[in-house]
Amino acid sequence: MLRRKSSSISSHHSNKSVGGVSNKNVPFTTNTFASSFNRVNGREMIDALKESRRRAFGGLLGNKRASLGNLRKSKSSTTADNHQSSTRQVELLTSMDLTMKRRSTGCLRRASVYSNKSSKSTDISNTKVWRSPGCYEIPNVFGSDCFLKPEPIVEKTYRLRTPDLQKHISKHPWRPVGNCTEIPQLPPLVRTKNEFEKRIRKALAKVPVSSLDPKNKYDGFKEIGTGVNGSVVRAQHRYKKNVFLAIKRCHLDPDREYKASIIRELRIMATGHTNLIRLREVSLWKDDVWIAMDLQRCSVFAVLCQRGIPEQYSVYIICEALKGLSYMHSKGFIHRDIKCENILLGWNGEVKLADFGLATRTNRRNRERLGTSKWMAPEVIREQSYDEKIDMWSLGITLIEMMDRVPPHYQLKDETELFTAILSESSPTFTYSYPTVYMRGLVAWLLDETPSTRPHASDVLQEIDVHIQSRLLQCASSNDLARFINHVLPTAS
Known about the structure:
By secondary structure, the protein is α+β, with helices and mostly antiparallel strands.
């Protein structure tokens, strides 16, 4: 390396003009002492520079290669070098602060393998020299303390401060506003009750009325039917084993008549009659009324979906329904929606009337066209004033439905045509079944078009009992009805 650079310096020196005249294309150096280098030979100057560095820095910089940047830019001369000027120049270099001199890239290069420098000086100078990436070890630039160290666990001991009772006593105690010297007592925390809740609690004195969420008491909800005022679901009691109830959920509407119908329905079920569905509990939660009732096995309509009901079972069902209607009429209520869907059957052959959402009082003038179209009496369709005898007409249609499996005029879908057929044609009778003569006579009596001559529920019940005792009509028992239902609906629950 040294020989190659000296040759380059010699070639650079030979390019100068002879006779001490410098070439104009070669630039001058900016150092103040560069003009004195013109008379010094290149090799001797390098040797003198190295010697001066060894003497000045004690050999620390002896292994570094001298920068030839300034030497390349200096002028060369062909004249003989003066030994005295060279000596003076060396002294000038030794006395100069080398930190002011611009460092060239030559100082960053590694020493040549052909260099004759000692290995000891090389080891000292290459301690902090930059190395290109390759087979060298990556330096730890972050240091040994770059990661957080866990703090030592020091067990702290706590001690209670001595209580100072005088510290917490206020110098200015609170005083009530006004002339009163005593602190007034807060009113008791009582939940406000709305007017509807007051009416329900007054009407249902013997039935528990709750204001808590019924979902905390019941679970396993499954819809089993729909009523006039809401859907009916089956639920299980959380805290009582094997207790199942039917819950009817009614959404409270601001309409006054609608709320009155709910209270009327609750009053009828709260009577506790054997042939009326029994009310167990009422829950008022948010904007809904949850009505818990006894759960029955099925309705008469569910049996009709499988087959028709024979005459003896139909007579028993009609007698039990007449008992419930007779009780309702004696209490001043009209059902207005008697049909097979609203007659429920129990596991032991019980018969109960349900869905009193359209019930009304007998002491008021009733002219509304309410009910199910195919079971409506003629006076209801005409919107004339009617009484409890409209339930007898609906019960006669229900008796035909139980034996024929369908009500009269079931094929008519248009309501106008249906009403025209009921009003214009004669009283309907059996179509698809073959009942006895006495059963036909009973249905004709119930379907009397004149309301005044139509019988009451108690009269019909007495007439049927007479025919049963005379063996003109056959009537099954509750056990017989239960066995018949088990045979028709073996998987019913």
